[in-house]
Amino acid sequence: MEHLDGVAVRQVTCTVRASSVAADSWYQDPAEGGGILFGDVCHFIDLAIWFQSSAPLEVHALATRDPSHRDESWSIQMRFANGGLSTVHYVCGSQQGWERETIDILGGGRSARISGFRKLTLNDGRRSRNSSSLQPNLGQSEMLEAMVAQFARKPGATDYTDSFISSTQALIASHRSIQERRVVLLDSHFPYSPD
Q1: 117 belongs to a structural domain
Q2: What is the pLDDT of residues 21-56, one digit of tens each?
Q3: What H or E segment, with its residue span, contains residue 178?
Q4: pLDDT tens across 140-174, in order?
Q5: What range does the domain containing 39 cover?
Q6: Pairing between strand 56-65 and 71-80?
Q7: Beta-carbon neighbour count of residue 95 at 10 Å?
Q8: Is 170 helix (H, G, I), strand (E, B) or coil?
Q9: What is the pLDDT of residue 65?
Q10: Does any domain span residue 79?
């Protein structure tokens, strides 16, 4: 994001207000659907890492339970090598009257807010600029194109291996942090090292 070029230390907050998923849904089954943490929250962990442009070093995650005793709402905090912090707040059953997603990126006297993947607000401390679209752009087609280019080893394609691994490692660390009720430290070279 050009607006934050030169801002090494950032605060990123992803707030997701999702609708509840039935307890007997295949999506909630840990074996079949993986559950919401592995099926949807993972995307916001990945997005927070991408906005940081840095490796996550530690993760602290907490879950709240609904009356049927399922985990379906989380607060996941990550600390990064660049000194930045990210938080993913994912809450089921709180979407009425709000945008489903709000992402705030702050640092260096600048801020950016993405609302519902339809509206972007940029502020540089002097003025705000807004842009919007009727249809949300979740970046899915661009992601698939980039993955196909990488796996096909097309000339000029970006290698996202480190990004895939960092996001997966942070997701697994989030799950572990919830289960073990502790901060989980990440090894920046595990499980992949280019050396």
Answers
A1: yes
A2: 887 888 888 788 788 899 899 999 999 999 998 999
A3: helix 161-180
A4: 888 889 888 988 999 999 888 888 889 999 999 99
A5: 7-180
A6: antiparallel
A7: 15
A8: helix
A9: 73
A10: yes
The rounded distance, in Å, linking the Cα atoms of 53 and 18 is 26
62, β-bridge pairs:
75
Q: How far apart are CA 86 and CA 88, in angstroms?
A: 7
Q: Look at residue 88 and give its three-state secondary structure.
A: strand
Ramachandran category for residue 34: left, alpha or beta (phi over 0 → left; psi -120 to 50 → alpha): left
- Residue 10 burial (CB count, 10 A): 25
Q: Is 78 helix (H, G, I), strand (E, B) or coil?
A: strand
3-state helix, strand, coil in the chain (%, to 5): 30, 30, 40
SS3 44: helix
**What count of other Cβ atoms lies within 10 Å of the Cβ of residue 114?**
21
Q: Are 87 and 76 in contact (CB under 8 A)?
A: yes
User: Where are any strands of DSSP class E within 81-176?
Assistant: 85-92, 101-107, 110-115, 119-123, 128-132
Q: Which amino acid is at 145?
A: E
The rounded mean pLDDT for the chain is 87
Evaluate if residue 189 carries a pLDDT over 60.
Answer: no
| Residue closest to 159 by CA, chosen among 145, 169, 147 | 147
CATH of the domain at 84: 3.30.360.10
141, part of any domain: yes
Distances (CA, A) of 179 to 25, 46, 61, 130, 169: 22, 20, 9, 41, 15
